[in-house]
Every structure is written in C-alpha cells, then in structure tokens.
Amino acid sequence: MTDSPAAAQPVVEMEHVDKFFGDLHVLNDINLTVRAGEVVVVIGPSGSGKSTLCRTINRLEGINSGTIKVAGEVLPEEGRELARLRSRVGMVFQSFNLFAHKTVLENVTLGPVKVKKSGTEDAKKRGMELLERVGVANQAAKYPAQLSGGQQQRVAIARALAMDPMVMLFDEPTSALDPEMVNEVLDVMVGLAQRGMTMIVVTHEMGFARKAADRVVFMSDGQIVEEADPESFFTRPQSTRARDFLSKILTH
C-alpha cells in the first residue's frame, strides 16, 4: 500500500453514475474516486450493487447516466478505444473464465501476444515470472481442469497482470472457492496491494478488508452509504445500516 494514496493521481472516477435493470435502480448516484496505489474494498449485503459497480468500470455493464473516467479518459461506448482502455483494466471474476483447451502458460500469454503484439518468447518469459509470483509456476504446462479452484484463480490473476493493468478489479474472487483455498488467493492479493497495485475489490472477506484496504466502501440498495479507513469502519461505523450489517457478519 502506498503511504499517501490521497496525493496520487485518480485512476478511476465515477461521477453521478446511475444504472437500472428495468425498474430496478441498481446503482443510485454513485460518486467514487480511486487513486493510484489505493486499495478500495467494496462490501455490503447481497444485491446492494457491488458487482454491478465493478462491472461498469470496464463497461461490461453500460450505465444509464453519469460519467466514468479511467486515467482521466471518459470510458468510450464501444469500439477500438474501449478495447484499448479495457486492456488496461484487469478483471478477476468469481468464476475463473480460463480457456479450458489451453495450458496455464498459454492462458497467461494469450492477451499480451494477441492484443499487445508482444513477442511469443517475451510473453512466455513474463508469463512464467507472473506464475511464479502467484505461486503456480510448476503448473504452467497443465490445463485448467487439472488444477484446484484456488490454483485456477491464481492463474486468472496472473493472466490479468500480464496485460500490465493500471487498475485491477476483483469481483468476489474467492466466493466460488472451497474454504481451504480462500487464503491462498487472498495472500496473492495482499502481495499485490503491498506492491502498490491499484485495486478495487468486491468481497465478503472482512479479514482481507482489514488487512489490505486503504478504504472500505459500504454499499446498500445501490448507494454508497459510508466510506472510511478499515479501522474506523469496523470499530466505529457511522450508519445504522453498516452497524446492522457488521453485527450480522462479525458475530459468526
């Protein structure tokens, strides 16, 4: 984590963002700025709009009104400019979304070779470095189905990192994992945070929020209800909604 993310340049800026699914107001006047090197953890009850917020940042979900900027540029609607900007926004999903017919190393090198036109050998060298960093270099020649869920998710993180993103989005990256595999993925994410990676993490893992976040954003009913540093949020939540949420999840 950086010493003073508040002084850094904004990487993601959301201003008055609204999103509807039919009559359902999923994102309601969202205003959020995430600066370079900052780790922002988004928490809240199911259905509060957390994943939708995450998915609008690289326009996997369109918005109805407001603006989203990445590195000072308004997110394009579609086309080549959107693809270019999207390539700088890494995303890790609940499901690992690896290509089943490609090896682990091929999964990691595909983006740099196809999108960034990296040389094959350079991409392989970088891919192995990233697999080493996430602790699965010894699985490089295997196919995804031969790996555990935790290993597959770490490969998915390496694949996103291979594109040299300016920000990493994590949409509940541990929710599909068996409990004993959760920590191996969270440890990789903590390591990224310590290296200064800009991260927006939607998660139910409160331990990770306490350990790695610069800021916790609490959502409910499509709105940002509260945001604070982890210590303040977990010990002195300001809103009734946050207090109620924490009382339910921290007592089990």
UniProtKB/TrEMBL annotation:
Keyword ATP-binding among record annotations: yes
Membrane topology: Peripheral membrane protein
Domain (ABC transporter): residue spans on this chain: 12-246
Family that this chain belongs to: Belongs to the ABC transporter superfamily.
InterPro entries in the cross-refs: AAA+_ATPase (IPR003593), ABC_ATPase_HisP-typ (IPR030679), ABC_transporter-like_ATP-bd (IPR003439), ABC_transporter-like_CS (IPR017871), MetN_ABC_transporter-like (IPR050086), P-loop_NTPase (IPR027417)
Top-rank lineage group of the source organism: Bacteria
Name used for this protein in its record: Amino acid ABC transporter ATP-binding protein
Keywords annotated in UniProt: Amino-acid transport, ATP-binding, Cell membrane, Membrane, Nucleotide-binding, Transport
Entry annotated with the keyword Transmembrane helix: no
PROSITE patterns, sorted: ABC_TRANSPORTER_1 (PS00211), ABC_TRANSPORTER_2 (PS50893)
Subcellular location, record wording: Cell membrane
Any one GO molecular function term: ATP binding
